[in-house]
Amino acid sequence: MLLDxxxxxxxxxxxxxxxxxxxxxxxxxxxxxxAHPDDETIGIxxxxxxxxxLTLVYTTxxxxxxxxxxxxxxxxxxxxxxxxxxxxxxxxxxxxxxxxSIVCCGxxxxxxxxNMASLASKLAKVFQAEGIDVVVTQPYEGGxxxxxxxxxxxxxxxxxxxxxGVAVPEVVEMTSYHADTDGSFTTxxxxxxxxxxxxxxxxxxxxxxxxxxxECFATQARALKAFQTKTDRELFxxxxxxxxxxxxHAGLLHYERRDWGMDGMRWRALARSARQSVPxxxxxxxxxxxxxGPTRARHSSPEFLLAPESQAVxxx
Length: 316
What we know:
Layout lengths: L1 H5 L3 H13 L3 E9 L4 H6 L6 E10 L7 H5 L5 H19 L4 E7 L8 H15 L3 E4 L7 H20 L5 E5 L2 E3 L5 E3 L10 E4 L2 H13 L4 H4 L8 E6 L25 H13 L40
Parallel strand pairs: 1-2, 1-4, 2-3, 4-5
Antiparallel strand pairs: 5-9, 6-7, 8-9
Helix pairs in contact: 5-8, 6-7, 7-10
């Protein structure tokens, strides 16, 4: 009975995947939850106009607490930088022909990892207040600590809603970036080993929408160059069940190669602490391995019960 209570109506997730792939408008209430302003453009920018009931949620404001990003971009202070980044989002939505309610959880850039439990609580309130059917968010791939924290917070928010006995939204993932074997990083594809990806081929007009959105983020122009050549398709998949206390893949994570103040072991300890702040009973809680081996995507548990891989919309 417990599993049936927590099991979301699978048709909502599959309906969204089909609508995105078939380029049809959807009336589902969708929340796109991203770590930073511009992450939504990378992952789903060419498809946002298809979502009639859209809520954009950012877990951070895109500015580091010490103001170094603002100063690098020529701003005198963080408030000015944050304000411009918010304006860039508004211009990008206009360029996409999309309308959305926008929520910012207010965390500083690179600090979402320290606030996963509070982020989960905020997200749960948004999901319940907006009656969200499906959440589209970033995968757990070790690309950026804020991305991984956002993924973890989304899943913890679902746990909070389940404990409250209210509707639990399903989760679909959009692509981001992760470490490559050559010491660089890979964009616009998922790490292997998860559910099958649904491929949304963007027609020319939607490719133009996405390129126009990228152009709106003048403060991020340099960082976005790696993504602007890949505007012909967008990949989505049902979110797998993650063990956030294990690394997403073997070897160095992308953010461990950067000066972003975080390493994988520390991040996983923070995720464990956040998870323990939203406890289940022993019969409800999935097993938590203390192993440091890479996490493996699973597809059935009381916590993140999802359809098996065979039920994902197949790639074209």
